[in-house]
# Entry
Amino acid sequence: MAKIKILQEDQSYTFRSYFELPYEAEDILAEFDYALSLSHLSLPKTTRELDRISELKQRIDEILPFVSLSNETARRETLVSPIMLEVIRYCHCKMRIEYPVNVNNWLKGNLDYLLRSQNQNNLLVIEAKKDDLTRGFTQLAVELIALSYIEEEKNIFYGAVTIGDVWRFGKLDRKEQQITQDLNLFKVPDDLEPLIRIVVGILEGV
# Structure
């Protein structure tokens, strides 16, 4: 079967464009010579003591009944940002918000959250528009490809896409030219501890 041609050589595409394209993720990623697989990822997970997760979970539990999560700003301020700041406490990692990237005309735009630890491990986190995790993952995968061009010495890259109360992880393997979408979903606040343990584990290089 002939490969579907989606991207046009003379056109420019931002990361947001890939969320809006009406094509399957595997067809879009094939344009970059990457394959897509879905499986239960074996994600890194820290085992060290994380002393304030229960406190964060309690705070989120207490405020959720009073906050409408009907828009992206509300979800970011109420759920995503507190988790990102909690991770920084544990890892002392640097966080770039709306980090601009311009690899070429097909790979450019802003990365929502880019976390980089002291040992140079990265985690990319993006917020899916319109509560659409499926299209959001397509955008995440393309942004991971862009990141792989910037961090040329690395072979494995991790990312996560979230709608605030639900998270999904992905992994890019440069050598295998493959992106894996984790079949597991992590819900906030119920799965807050395993979620943060994975994020910290990725950044620590566990």
Notes: The radius of gyration is 17 Å.
